[in-house]
Structure formats: C-alpha cells, structure tokens
Amino acid sequence: MDEQQKRLANCFCAVFPELSGEEILHASTATVKSWDSVAVVTLLTVIEEEFGISIEEDDPAKFDSFQRILSYLQENQGKSQSPDDVG
Amino acid sequence: MKLVEALNILQSVKQRRGESFSCFLATGMNPLHLKTFLAAELSLLYLNHRIEIQPGLYGDFLGNLNRLANADTDCGIVLMEWSDLDSRLGLRTVAAWSASACIDILSNARACALQVQATIEKTCQRMPVVLCLPTLPLPPISFVPGWQASSFEMDLKALVQSVASQVSQCSQVRILSPQRADLVSPLRERLDVKSELLSGFPYKLGHASALAGLLARLMRTPAPKKGLITDLDDTLWRGILGEVGIDGISWDLDHHSQMHAFYQGLLNGLSNEGVLLAVASKNEPSLVQEVFNRKDLALSANSIFPMEVNWGPKSESVARILKTWNVGPDSVVFVDDSSLELAEVKASHPEIECVQFPTKDSAAIYELVFRLRDLFGKSSLSQEDAIRLKSIRSSHSGLPVYEAGKAAPTRFLEQIEADVSFDFNKSPLDPRALELVNKTNQFNLNGKRYTEASWYKYFLDPTSFLMLVSYKDKFGPLGKIAVVAGRRSKQLSVDMWVMSCRAFSRRIEHRCLEEMFAKFDVDEIELDYSPTDRNSPLSQFLKDILGVAPSPKCTISRRALATQSEAFRRLQETTNG
C-alpha cells in the first residue's frame, strides 16, 4: 500500500470504524451499510482535510467506492498536499 | 480540532457505559460536522459520560425551538443564524431583494426573535440553555456598499442583541461571546458556500470546530480557580523596589509601564468577585507597605491577604498562603516575572498553575489578562463571593479556635455568638447549593457531583428536600456554608451533605443533624456515605457519633447524637472545672 492509499484508508477508518483494513480496500456503497448521504459528505470532508484539497465535484454520489476515490486522488495528485503541508 | 480527530475521539469513547449527558441542539441548519465536533468536545469534558446530541429537524428552526422547550435533555443549545430569522437571509432560498423585502424580513425576524426569547425563558426553568447569536456574514441585501453599515443590518443586529440582553438576565442562560468567537474564528473563514449548497451545513470546518469548543465550555464551564498569588517587582509594578525606591517604581503611561496598571485593575476586579489574592515577594516589608499607601495603586492592600514579603524561598511563602486560605494548590495561580521563582514554586507545589508575567511585552500582558480572566471567570456571583476574604481574615485575627477534645464547644459557640440558620426552600433553587456540592471535598458525604440538569431533576421528586445552612457570628457572616439534600419517604435518607471547610470547628454539622431530627420528626437518618480520597473530616465526624467507622448507607439515630452531645457537655463541665 503506498502513502496515498494509507492516508485514504485512514480517512475511511475514521468514517467507517467498523471496517477492517482489508474491507476498506474493497469498500463501496454496495458493501458498506453505513455508507449513506451523511457518510459520503463526512468522508469527502475528511479527505479534503487530510489531503488539503477541494473536491470540485457537483455529484458526490460519484465517489461510491474506495477505488474510485483513490483514482480521483491519483488523477489530481498535483493538487493535493503531503501531510507536512496540511496545517 | 480536525474532523478526523473528532471522529476518532467519538470512536474511542463509544464503549462508555456510564451516565449520559444529553443536549438538544435547536438550529435550522443541518448540524453535520458541528454535531461531530460538539460531541467530541463534550466527550473530552465529561470524561465518563456518554454524549447524546439531539439535532431536531433540518430547516425547521421554529419547530426545533418548540422541541427544545419540551425536550428531556441535560442542556439546550439555541444556535441561530441569519437564515433562521428569515430564509431570505440564506443562500438556499430564491428571493427578490428589494427595500420592501428588507422591511418584511425585519418583521419576520422580529417575530422569530421573540419566539427565541420566549423559548429560552421557558426552557431555562428546567435546564441550562446556551445561546449562540448569528456568526455568519449577512448577505448584501441592502443597497449600500459593503463598507457601509445599512440601517437594515443595524436593525437586525439590534434585534438579536436585544434578545440576548433580555435572556442574559436568566440565571441558567449562557451566551456565547461574539468577541471570543471573532478572536478564534475570523469572519471571512466562517461561511462555506459549497457545503451550504450541497448539504445545508454552512460552516467551514475551522469555524465549526471553534464554535463547538466554545459551546462545550459554556455547557461545562471549568471550575474557576480560587486564589491568585502575585509577585510585586516587575509584576504588580515595573521596577525593583529595593533598587529604585518607592518613587522609582511605576505603572503609568509616562514610564511606559501602563500595562502593570492594567494587571492591577484585573486583580482588583478579581478581589471584588471573591477571588483570594496574596503576595509572595522577596522584598523589604516596610518599603512594600509604603507602596501600598500610594493612592494611585489600582489595588488596595485590604484586597490582599496574606502578604508574604520576606527574603525566604517563595515556595515557603506559597505554602503559608495555601495554609491560611485552606485551599488546594490545584485551585491557585502563581504569577511571577522570574522563570527561576516559577520553577522553584512549581517544584514544591506541582499542582499550582504557574504563569510568567511578561514584564516588557505589553501585548503579551494584555493577552495574559484575558487568560487570567478565563481561569477565574464564573457565570454568576454569589453573596458568599463578597464575604470570602473577610471571613478568612476574621479566622486569622484573634478568633478563638475550637479544637476537638480541648475546648468547650458550646461555650465556644456562645462566645462568638454563633447563629446557624436553615432554609428548606426548593423553589427557586439557590445556585449556591449546587456550587457548594460540586466544589466541596473534605466534608462531603460521598463526593458525588451533579450537572445542573441532574440537580434540577433531583428536586422534581416531591419527596426530595433541600436544607441550605447559613452561618454568622460576631466576626461576621460566612454566608451559605452547608447543604444537605435527601428524600423523605418511609424514612429520611440523606443523599448529599457538604460543608465548606471555612465552617469547620463550629459544631454546625451537629446542628444540621439536630435540625433534621426536629424538622422531619424521625428517629433515624440514613446516610448515603461513601469514602473518598479527601472526605476524612466527614468520616471522622460520623465515626465520633457512631463509635465505629461509617459504612455505606449507615444510619444515625437520634439517640446516638444525643449521647455524643451529652459526652461533649460533660467534657465542657470538666474543662471548665
């Protein structure tokens, strides 16, 4: 697991504490019962806070799995900050 | 606090099985992350409680006010934003801005504000209520440019200020300080437009976190410190008295030492509020006395007791002061400009809060005064606050001190013309009673503490009783110094019994028992006793009456008390020959 994946997993862990490390990697709206509209807003806010980015996406429902969020972060890698930069 | 930290805190306290602390949050917004931050902050303040926050319904501010008025929670919060007064003041409502709309908005806002006031006044009869006035910027509805305040803006702000002013008179209402909110959360860092549109939560995370921290502290105000010990040279005044003499020290603008006068002003204020003040200074006593004769000092020598001015170690001066005050070191702040002196005192009294006075940094002194105000601040003042210093002075100025087994207690009380009075009134509950219960350690039946809500709930039981005990003698009043509370059903049960240590050695505890036997006409009183780390004086008192160490749910009989009183009477006769 690379650094970015670890940081994202920590975000998932805070919002979905009931998931194991392995379950987080495969987490999606289909597999996590508590993944509702409040959870997705909370999750995206925690991710914004962790990575120091602003997720400019009109439809947060698109972020429906760990892997899709990871892909988004990888695509926008240049815009995110390392943990040291995040205040 | 970061959101992820708040979530982790909530996860870590999920297993708590203790009592719950519940709070109804009346707001029109979706409280989303604010609720998370608030629950986390409260979890840190209430270390053993499960925290429950009831948020009401989204977009229904007025309905939520009604729900608050009927809520069965420990505390209520009214969190009002401009859009709660009229939805046209928010982002989520399509509205045609116009001069006539402004008039209509003001009219709506006035009706809403009155409802807020009525709800708070009603709810605070049952539970503490915290009010947070609008914190977000107003949208530019009025025709004036942004740098000009419109009459519309001023009228709206006057409206909410008026509500706040009215409800601030209620004893159980606390208003979040807009000034402190401005300091910890700048206005431009508050509104999150995207979040408001997306989820109905209008706050940026930093603002939500800051507000939650302040709201939590309003719900559970930290116990205020009781005493402040100050240094003199380069602290109470600028200059070293022994080197520059009385005319060489200063606290004024001319000598660029005005901030020492600012500090003096604070100390004078603290003294008037019942905070104990003492001096610990390495100095020549006669010189210090002369300084305190100066009329321009903003602090009277009468406000300070004791004055430890000598050349010995400050830790020893501090020890003598603590003994005179009879307060624990954890209730005391020591202020000195010297790091060395602070370290020396801290080494001997690790529980004392040691604060460095930043002599040559005016801005830092300004900050320090605010910090000290926070340490000593309290929600309200009582009569006892005003007489605390006087009673401590009295007890060190020739008052004959009773020592158990050596002097005659009855004669002692006659000598000092002791007058003990009892008040059984439950409605309204005197806030002094809860204050005593929650801060008394030594003469305390079981060490149990109460939240305001649990205290009020306790007395809703029709079998409950409250006995508030006041004391005065020829040296002056001690005020309300003891509380007994319990229930009268088949038998008389006492659930809490505390007495201020200032009232020890006056046999007031015996008078309390006598009064209860007489008032309730019972032969036995059951006590919910439990030993604590610090309640040995209470344990000893019970042991003297019972003849054995007290046990939980122990019972004192009228006869046992009479036997003990008789033994004292005999001792008195023997002592007096």
Secondary-structure blueprint:
The complex is a heterodimer of chains A (87) and B (577).
Chain A: H1 3-15, H2 21-25, H3 37-51, H4 66-75
Helix pairs in contact in A: 1-3, 1-4
Chain B: H1 3-12, E1 20-26, H2 32-45, E2 50-54, H3 61-70, E3 75-79, H4 82-85, H5 99-123, E4 129-132, H6 151-167, E5 173-175, H7 178-184, H8 193-199, H9 205-219, E6 227-230, H10 241-244, H11 258-272, E7 276-282, H12 285-292, E8 304-310, H13 314-325, E9 332-336, H14 339-348, E10 353-356, H15 362-376, H16 383-395, H17 409-415, E11 419-423, H18 431-439, E12 443-444, H19 452-460, E13 464-473, E14 476-488, E15 492-499, H20 508-520, E16 524-527, H21 536-546, E17 554-557, H22 558-575
Parallel strand pairs in B: 1-2, 1-3, 3-4, 4-5, 6-7, 6-9, 7-8, 9-10, 15-16
Antiparallel strand pairs in B: 11-13, 12-15, 13-14, 14-15, 16-17
Helix pairs in contact in B: 1-2, 2-9, 3-5, 5-6, 11-15, 13-14
Task: Walk me through the structure.
The complex is a heterodimer of chains A (about 90) and B (about 575). Chain A has about 90 residues and is mainly α. Chain A has a single domain, classed as ACP-like (Non-ribosomal Peptide Synthetase Peptidyl Carrier Protein, Chain A, Orthogonal Bundle), CATH 1.10.1200.10. Chain A has helices at about 5-15, 20-25, 35-50, 65-75. The longest helix of chain A has 15 residues, at about 35-50. Chain A starts with a helix and ends in a 12-residue tail after the last helix. The relative contact order of chain A is 0.18. The mean pLDDT of chain A is about 85. Chain B is of the alpha/beta class and about 575 residues long. Chain B folds into three domains: about 5-220, Rossmann fold (3-Layer(aba) Sandwich), CATH 3.40.50.1110; about 225-380, HAD superfamily/HAD-like (Rossmann fold), CATH 3.40.50.1000; about 410-575, Gcn5-related N-acetyltransferase (GNAT) (Aminopeptidase, 3-Layer(aba) Sandwich). Chain B has helices spanning about 5-10, 30-45, 60-70, 80-85, 100-125, 150-165, 180-185, 195-200, 205-220, 240-245, 260-270, 285-290, 315-325, 340-350, 360-375, 385-395, 410-415, 430-440, 450-460, 510-520, 535-545, 560-575; strands at about 20-25, 50-55, 75-80, 130, 175, 225-230, 275-280, 305-310, 330-335, 355, 420-425, 445, 465-475, 475-490, 490-500, 525, 555. Chain B is globular. Mean pLDDT of chain B is about 90; it is low at about 400-410.
